[in-house]
Amino acid sequence: CMRAKPLILIVDDEADFREIIGAKLNSAGFDVVLAKNQTEAITKSEQLLPDLILMDIYMPPGPTGTDTALTIRQNPKTKDLRVAFLTSLKEPWPAIGGDREKVTQELGMEGFLEKTEDLNILVKKVQEILEKVRSSGGGEQAPQS
């Protein structure tokens, strides 16, 4: 069943950023849950099955958000959850030379958001990802006649 408000899980090791983006998404009409590392991210994903996970890539001491996202995807309970990466790094995957959108797609994730962007842009991107989800048929629509 569709929630009244989409639930977004924000995974980030920086408390300040979690709070800021959480508050911003909250005021934009989303419900928000926060996690600070892989363990919390996996637990909360399983418990809550959020509509979207915003996953920080670089979370020292590790594991990375990339690994965490793939772990969530390998779990039968959470394999269909949507994940978008969140990073302040221009080249989060230096080995692959910066084609972030391509890597994001190859990993099967929804998108790539830069923390340095205006928060309004981040919110808009989140809304676009969720719209895309709805329009691609969340199983709620009546069959086309």
Provide structural commentary.
The protein is an alpha/beta fold. 40% of the residues lie in helices and 17% in strands. It has a 5-stranded parallel beta sheet, with helices on both faces. Helix 2 packs parallel to helix 3 (65-74).
In spatial order, strands of the major sheet run 2-1-3-4-5
The first-to-last residue Cα distance is 23 Å
Overall geometry? globular
The biggest beta sheet reads: 5 strands, parallel
Indicate the mean pLDDT. 86
Number of strands: 5
Indicate the topology.
Layout: E1 7-11, H1 15-27, E2 31-35, H2 38-48, E3 52-56, H3 65-74, E4 83-87, H4 100-106, E5 111-114, H5 119-135
Parallel strand pairs: 1-2, 1-3, 3-4, 4-5
Helix pairs in contact: 2-3
Keywords:
145 residues, 5 strands, globular, 5 helices
Brief overview:
By secondary structure, the protein is of the alpha/beta class.
